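Let's practice the habit of predicting before peeking. Look at the sequence and jot down your guess about where helices and strands might fall. Then scroll down.
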Amino acid sequence: MKESIYAPDNKYGYKINISHPDIKPLYQRFKKWKGIADWCPLSDAERLEFESYILKGEKSND
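Done guessing? Here is the structure:
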């Protein structure tokens, strides 16, 4: 079974699994675009912004 891009049981309420092999490059590109160092996690607002881009992309592929 293929790992889902979703993180339904995330205790922080995030919806996307940033460790997923299809998502990780997008996450890294987003951080680079925002000027955030590789070692630095996103703020809650940045993470929600990233997830909104991913979720919008998912809806347009349906």
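How did you do? The helical segments are 24-34, 44-60.
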